[in-house]
Amino acid sequence: MRNEGNASKLIFVGNHICLDFINTQIIHKGRIVDLLRDFSHLVEWLAETELLDFTKSKETLRKLTGNPERERVLAQAREFRAVLRAIIERIIEGKPIQKSAIDAINKLLSNRIGYPQLIQARNGFKTQFYAESSEAIHLIVPIAESASDLLCHGDFSLIKKCDNPDCILYFYDISKNHARRWCSMNICGNRMNEPPETEIRGSIPSRLSGTKTYLFKRPPEFKW
């Protein structure tokens, strides 16, 4: 979202929507911190990744005020994040992806509803898919689409974990010569390069956008 309130803690260093979603869980002062603290933070994350525009995100929060679906979908999003993390861990370890993980992706994908539209482009025409979202669960379907896209079209050798052993952030390495080591120089790179005797005390960075260069097909935006 465009405001800097709750969204100020979000981190975008993954170069892929799927990885940035996994990165909504971080290590801070030796403990795991969930950046999706409530449903509103999930909606803000969707807006920051442009899966949901700012106006629609406010409308979504208004429509679901007091609706128990908020907590259910937040729980499903967190569970799906754990599935995605397990997938990425197995990819990095060179292990096959478990069928249960593929089933979890497909289960979410089965919730997609929408319709194609013919759009006039600069040099002709193109077909664009518009996703409709009449239920809260539809909000997280594009995350499954992003995971599917990464598995189908990504180069697994470029999916990496930050070299800081105390960090749990992942990224898709688009650096020159694919030599990137850190989630971000501001988070881990500078710290790991400090002299060993230097004690580092810090807080979660106020905002880290790194780059939102998403390499693959972006899932369609929602329509409520």
Mean of residue pLDDT? 83
Tell me the count of domains. 1
Q: Which overall shape is indicated by the principal axes computed on the Cα atoms?
A: globular
Task: Report the helical percentage.
Answer: 25-40%
Classify the secondary structure makeup into a structural class. Answer: alpha+beta
What is shown here, in short?
The chain is 37% helix and 15% strand.
Describe the protein in words:
The protein is of the alpha+beta class and 224 residues long. It has a single domain (6-223), classed as Jann2411-like fold (Orthogonal Bundle), CATH 1.10.3300. The chain is 37% helix and 15% strand. It has seven helices and seven strands, in the order H-E-E-H-H-H-H-E-E-H-E-E-H-E. The strands form three sheets. It has a three-stranded mixed beta sheet, with no helix packed on it. Helix 2 (39-48) packs antiparallel against helix 3 and helix 5 packs across helix 6. The longest helix is centred in the middle third of the chain and has 25 residues, at 69-93. The radius of gyration is 18 Å and the shape is globular.
